Structures are given as structure tokens and as C-alpha cells.
Amino acid sequence: MSSSPPYAVFAVGRLVVGVVCLGCAIFLGYVVIPDYAPAVRAQRGSGQKGVFVAERLDCSRRCVWYGRFHADSGQTVRRNVWLEGAGRDDLAAGRPTRALDTGARHYVYTPEGDPYWLGLIGGTLLGLAGLLCGCHLLRAGANTLRRRP
Q1: Which of 29, 18, 16 lies closest to 124, judged by CA?
Q2: Rounded distance, CA 47 to CA 118, Å?
Q3: Looking at the keywords, is Transmembrane helix present (predicted)?
């Protein structure tokens, strides 16, 4: 009866954990990267200025106001977008407020910009850590399996 040598078990473990780390890093990149450009534009105050008219409050995960965005130019009306940066008590249904459309797919910003910079930075750092750990573990596991008889 033959069993795997101990170094092979650890090497395979490294490979598995490395693949999981890379998968997590790719997922975080998929979630975080699309939000960077709109968030930067919001912080700079660049984008299409207009008015957001609140229609409904949704508090399933966090409280966000959904409504319509009307550009000052009158050319753009976006429906069913949420206002990023507005809390539960900041608006009421039917009440208009100033907003900024920076090109984000599902939301517009308050004129103050994006209040969730920490989340973007944290997600990026976690993604980079996962990428580095995954690459290191894959390389270490592969090298161990190659060197041993």
C-alpha cells in the first residue's frame, strides 16, 4: 500500500489555497474596479450636474434612495438609479436634491462625492494581497512538487 509523501500533501494544499486566493482576488477586482472611475469623478465634482428626485427607500442591505435623475441640460433622464451618499433621513419621497451623474451604471452621487472611499481602498488592498498570496502559494507548491522525487 503506497501513500503520498508528506511534502506532496503540503504542496497540493498550497496549490489549492493558491487557487482559492487567486479566485478571491479576481472576484474582488470584478466588484471594485468598475467603481473607481465614477468615484474619482465624483470626488472631483466632474460629471453631469442635475437633480435627483427620490421615489422609494430600500433598506434591504443598507438604506438607499431610488429615483430619477434629471440633468440640468434637460437631455438626460435616468430612471431607477440610487443616490450614493444619501442616508435614510436625508431625503423624502418626491423631494428633489442636487446630484451628479459620473457615468456609474446604477447610481448617481450627492454633490459631496463618494463617502465610501475606504471600501474601495480596502477592497483593492485585499485583492492585491490575495493576488500576491495566490501567486506565491502556486509557485511554492509547484516548485516543491517538481524538486521532489
Answers
A1: 29
A2: 22
A3: yes
Report residue 113 CA to chain centroid gap: 16
Question: Helix 117-147 crosses helix 6-44 at what angle (to 10 degrees)?
Answer: 160
Cβ of 42: how many Cβ atoms within 10 Å?
A: 26
Give the position of cell 429615483. 67
138 three-class SS = helix
Note whether 79 and 106 are within 8 A (CB).
no
Say how many residues make up the chain.
Answer: 149
What is the per-residue pLDDT for 148?
A: 66
Q: What parts of the chain have a pLDDT lower than 50?
A: 1
81 within 8 A of 106, measured Cβ to Cβ:
yes
Residue appearing with cell numbers 442616508: 87
In sign, the C-alpha dihedral spanning 101, 43, 56, 54 is: negative
CB-based contact 48:100 (threshold 8 Å) = yes
Distances (CA, A) of 135 to 28, 87, 96, 128: 16, 40, 49, 11
- For the entire predicted model, the pTM comes to 0.69
Helical residues (DSSP H) of 5-86, grouped into ranges: 6-44
Among 118, 66, 112, which Cα is nearest to 88's?
Answer: 66
